[in-house]
Amino acid sequence: MLAAISASGKNCGVVILEKNPSPGKKLLITGKGRCNITNNCTEQDFLESVISNPKFLIKAIYRFPPVKVMEFFESLGVKLKTERGRRVFPESDRSSDVLNALLKKLKECNVKIIQGDAAEISVQNGRVSGVKYFSPHGESYIEAYSVIIATGGMSYPTTGSNGSGYKLAAALGHTVIPPRPSLVPLVTKETWTASLTGLSLKNVNVSFYDNEKLLFSEQGEMLFTHFGVSGPVVLSGSAYIKHFPVGMYIDMKPALSAEILDARIISDFNEYKNKDFSNSLDKLLPKAMIPVVVSLSGTDGRKKVNSVTKAERSKLVSLLKAIPLTVTGTRPVEEAIVTSGGVNVSEVNPSTMESRITGGLFFAGEVLDVDCYTGGFNLQTAFSTGVLAGENAVK
């Protein structure tokens, strides 16, 4: 939609070929239905939040940075607010307001929306010449001087992003880096997570290690599930895991050193000295986690607190600073927020988003091999590359 708006008004007809009955189905589910449209950060901060190929996005982000995205949506009548982590949302908390504003703008720009599923991009003399597609009425064809592939990746295929853009690009000679899920929940070897399904931990530190190599470490919120773990810090960390298994460690008390945590536990034990060990951790842990921690500690839960040895207490401290899990894989790509992989960016001009292989072929968004952290960065990428592609498609 941003590409179409950007291309309009320059003495050419602009058509969106939309496989769904109406555009923006994926936009409606972003930010849990609230639409985290961007991150209120500088261009440099944005580039530092790009996981794959940040240099490729330099031209795009400086052409249409977060501040311009915000100004654009405000100009469409969508009032915005900035929340924790500089995440930008509509004040209404309704993604439908963002979509409706874009649809209204498309109408003002005389952009035509046709329902159809692109089957083939035709080429003559090294340049695109049109698109064959299938509509509810049968096979059709649109003549075109330029074509922008902005189909998304493979995440949330029910919204339309089912990998079709990769096939269109590959058919024209482009290399597609094998897509894999990114920003995705993780599966663990340990089954005790299932007993904690739905439990959210806030202000914990989650770290991932490949043997002794630290892959990722961040403080924030995570969630236990029937298959393993999810939540913001887990999703962010998943982007750094290239193969499995890897070790995951949860620091339940990142603000406390081991020594201070030990002193805290001693204080609690003195208060509960006549209680069983399993009944002495109420001030330290969510109630649902206590049986798991007691089991992992190796200390008999029925043991009286005043009988717990220094070695047992030391093991408890070490456990609370690094509860271990073994990550064996990810959930399917259909459950990922974004897709890592896609059209090889070395075959695309970063200044225009035009193919280096076929004239008049452009790319925008997740179909490219670029992906970012959560927090509005992936939609920002879509908007920036869409604007750059749209501008250059009509030159």
Which descriptors would you attach to this protein?
395 residues, alpha+beta, FAD/NAD(P)-binding domain, Helicase, Ruva Protein, domain 3, six-stranded antiparallel β-barrel, three-stranded antiparallel β-sheet, 28% helix, elongated
CATH architectural category of the largest domain: 3-Layer(bba) Sandwich
In total, the number of domains comes to 2
- Structural class of the helices, strands and pairings? alpha+beta
- Counted beta strands: 18
Give the biggest beta sheet. 6 strands, antiparallel, barrel
Overall spatial form: elongated
The fraction of residues assigned to DSSP E strands is 25-35%
Order of helices and strands: HEHEHHHEEHEEEEEHEEEEEHEHHHEEEH
Based on CA atoms alone, the radius of gyration comes out at 25 Å
Please give the CATH class of the largest domain. Alpha Beta
Our count of helices gives: 12
Q: What is the share of helical residues? A: 25-40%
Report the average pLDDT across residues: 95
- Which stretches of 5+ consecutive residues score pLDDT under 50? none
Distance between the termini: 18 Å
CATH fold name of the largest domain, please?
Answer: FAD/NAD(P)-binding domain
Major β-sheet strand ordering? 11-14-13-12-15-16
What is the CATH superfamily of the largest domain?
Answer: FAD/NAD(P)-binding domain
